Amino acid sequence: MPNQVLTIEPQNELKFKVDFSGLFELGYTTYMRLTNPSEHTVLFKIKTTAPKKYCVRPNSGVLEPNSKVDIAITPQPVHVDPNEKHKHKFMVQSVIAPEGKTNIDQVWKEISPDQLMDYKLKCVFETPRGANLNDAGDNATQNEVNKKRVAVTAAEDTKSLTKDAVEGFIQNEAKRKDDDHTSGSLNAKTTTFPKSENLESDLQKATNEVIHLREEESKLRHENLRLKEELLRLHQSGGGETRARRHSYGPEKTEQMALMPWIATAIAMALLGIIIGKFLM
């Protein structure tokens, strides 16, 4: 490949201005000057790796010997991705025009690649403070690495916190079960109290019943003694005929016989109360 015959300014890079968000500055145009110092007519073309983001005028043409041309490169109002900073490049292709050829398009089609002269320039993006967006891309890459490191550290911390949380949960569950067991035991003990109170109430009732039966028994005994004294008094009164005595004895004996079932019942109830009292006590 032959050496580039044209003189290109700037020689290595094209600078573009962008704002802090990476958007091209509106209305800003970068210029590239091509000079033909030779004695030959030279055909040229301007190519870029991002044709949709730049407007190049003119993008092709003819340079007569010892002539020059300024190429205006105006970026479109789009954002520049810092990760694509190294992909934005421009290339100047040139070839010496064959003699007798007037159709430029036909010359570019028929030219051999070995005859082409290429020259590449990289793009540099500057913010209003003069910072280089290319360096910002490197910083962005470093920031991504730092973010990943932070994410890994956060994941490890989260794992540790999760382990501590699980252990704390297990301990809380064990403590809760112990509390439930203790509470259950207290409740069980508490539930026995009503039974004890009911038993004491039953014993008190039984005791009162026994006392009542004993009082009834005492009353019946007094009544029995009274009847016996009355019967003895009637026998001692003497006077009167045997018929009369029999007549008077007959009703008293009948009355005494009528009281016997009550006396037997009272005695049975008293004995039953005594037995129940001994069993409960």
From TrEMBL:
Record-linked InterPro entries: Ig-like_fold (IPR013783), MSP_dom (IPR000535), PapD-like_sf (IPR008962), VAP (IPR016763)
Lineage: superkingdom: Eukaryota
Signal peptide segment: none
Biological processes per GO annotation: endoplasmic reticulum membrane organization; endoplasmic reticulum-plasma membrane tethering
Entry's Gene Ontology molecular function annotations: FFAT motif binding
Annotated membrane topology: Single-pass type IV membrane protein
Membrane as UniProt keyword: yes
Cellular localization per UniProt: Membrane
Every MSP domain range: 5-126
Composition-biased stretches (Basic and acidic residues): 173-182
GO CC aspect terms: endoplasmic reticulum membrane; plasma membrane
Any single Pfam family the record assigns to this protein: Motile_Sperm
Keywords assigned by UniProt, alphabetized: Membrane, Transmembrane, Transmembrane helix
Compositional bias (Polar residues): 183-195
Family classification: Belongs to the VAMP-associated protein (VAP) (TC 9.B.17) family.
The protein's name: MSP domain-containing protein
